[in-house]
């Protein structure tokens, strides 16, 4: 992991998704919940009792703000008193699941996987989800029963989009002939498409409304597992967008919000850094002599920077902006000495 990126994360605003920690030493249970970024966990909280929170969305590092009465952030001391858009849960005090137990739990002898809800981002034991955990769960997203019940319209989507086997779908009774499970084409058209001219275009194009009108339901209990790309199948009409916005669920329209997308992006960036040298694309318009001079200078600086950063890595320290400035000041000083040493004067 690049330490420079960690420093940028610490000073930036609310980050779309990042790894977070909670410091039990600085903000123990009973105090205000707070989260710190990876860089601050190394630089400001070394040797402290930390809770690893994995990743959270739309979060800004709290290190050194009002919640830390006796600690000032060593990376960026000038911070807002509070990050009002941050969301906190009992996870920030080392407690997880509906059973409110720590992880790892020394008193729990049952081997059980913990799965994160994509809405509240709490971690729950598989046995406390109220449903059967499907196969390939690492490729699926889960919404816990509590979050489903807080947003009842999600149950409609679940009846059509959820992973089969996690819950049993049922068909709503429509009356009439008990031997007829599905209405004929004419009845279905009359049901779904009202002839009234008052029906707005928005209503007729609302996928959620269309799904509701099919009458297909599922048992509204237990967590729900969702397959890959399920978010792209949510209705995005103006009414549904407003509904998700009011419920603070607009992120469900963003497929890059998923943890899988976050991990995939990290792997792609790592591979790109290993296989791509940005120097090559900058040399196309230079002559041979200029290309060689730049390549030699670039390689020298690259080697020196690698050695410089290696010292911090071996000591487990985070690189600060002051350290980077000091490195380049030393580079400039060495360059000036080389230029001065190469001058010749006639007498």
UniProtKB/TrEMBL annotation:
Pathway: Protein modification; protein ubiquitination. One of its GO terms (cellular component) is cytoplasm. GO terms for molecular function: ubiquitin protein ligase activity; zinc ion binding. It comes from the Eukaryota. Coiled coil: none annotated. Its EC number is 2.3.2.27. The keyword Hydrolase does not apply. Keywords: Isopeptide bond, Metal-binding, Phosphoprotein, Transferase, Ubl conjugation, Ubl conjugation pathway, Zinc, Zinc-finger. Transmembrane segments: none annotated. Residues 10-78 form the UBR-type domain. It catalyses: S-ubiquitinyl-[E2 ubiquitin-conjugating enzyme]-L-cysteine + [acceptor protein]-L-lysine = [E2 ubiquitin-conjugating enzyme]-L-cysteine + N(6)-ubiquitinyl-[acceptor protein]-L-lysine. A zinc finger (UBR-type) spans 10-78. CDD domains: PHD_UBR7 (cd15542), UBR-box_UBR7 (cd19677). Pfam families: zf-UBR (PF02207). PANTHER family: E3 UBIQUITIN-PROTEIN LIGASE UBR7 (PTHR13513:SF11). E3 ubiquitin-protein ligase which is a component of the N-end rule pathway. Recognizes and binds to proteins bearing specific N-terminal residues that are destabilizing according to the N-end rule, leading to their ubiquitination and subsequent degradation. This is Putative E3 ubiquitin-protein ligase UBR7. The gene is UBR7.
């Amino acid at each position: 992991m690049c330490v420079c990126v960690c420093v940028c994360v610490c000073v930036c605003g609310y980050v779309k998704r990042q790894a977070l920690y909670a410091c039990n030493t600085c903000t123990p249970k009973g105090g205000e919940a707070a989260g710190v970024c990876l860089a601050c966990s190394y630089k400001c909280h070394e040797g402290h009792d930390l809770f690893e929170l994995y990743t959270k969305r739309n979060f800004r590092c709290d290190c050194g703000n009002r919640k830390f009465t006796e600690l000032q952030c060593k990376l960026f001391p000038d911070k807002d008193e509070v990050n009002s858009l941050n969301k906190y849960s009992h996870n920030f005090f080392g407690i997880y699941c509906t059973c409110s137990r720590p992880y790892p739990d020394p008193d729990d002898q049952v081997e059980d996987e913990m799965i994160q809800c994509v809405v509240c981002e709490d971690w729950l034991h598989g046995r406390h989800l109220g449903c059967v955990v499907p196969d390939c769960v690492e490729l699926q997203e889960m919404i816990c029963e509590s979050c489903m019940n807080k947003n009842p319209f999600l149950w409609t989507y679940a009846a059509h989009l959820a992973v089969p086997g996690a819950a049993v779908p049922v068909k709503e009774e429509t009356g009439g002939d008990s031997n007829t499970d599905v209405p004929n084409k004419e009845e279905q058209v009359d049901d779904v498409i009202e002839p009234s001219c008052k029906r707005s275009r928005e209503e007729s194009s609302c996928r959620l409304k269309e799904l509701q009108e099919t009458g297909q339901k599922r048992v509204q209990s237990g967590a729900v597992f969702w397959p890959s790309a399920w978010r792209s199948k949510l209705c995005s009409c103006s009414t549904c967008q407003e509904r998700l916005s009011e419920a603070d669920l607009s992120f469900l329209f963003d497929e890059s919000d998923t943890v899988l997308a976050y991990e995939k992006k990290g792997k792609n960036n790592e591979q790109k850094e290993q296989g791509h040298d940005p120097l090559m694309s900058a040399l196309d318009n230079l002559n041979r002599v200029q290309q060689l001079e730049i390549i030699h200078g670039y390689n020298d600086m690259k080697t020196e920077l690698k050695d410089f950063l290696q010292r911090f890595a071996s000591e487990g320290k985070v690189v600060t902006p002051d350290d980077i400035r000091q490195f380049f000041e030393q580079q400039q000083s060495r360059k000036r000495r080389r230029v001065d040493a190469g001058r010749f004067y006639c007498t």
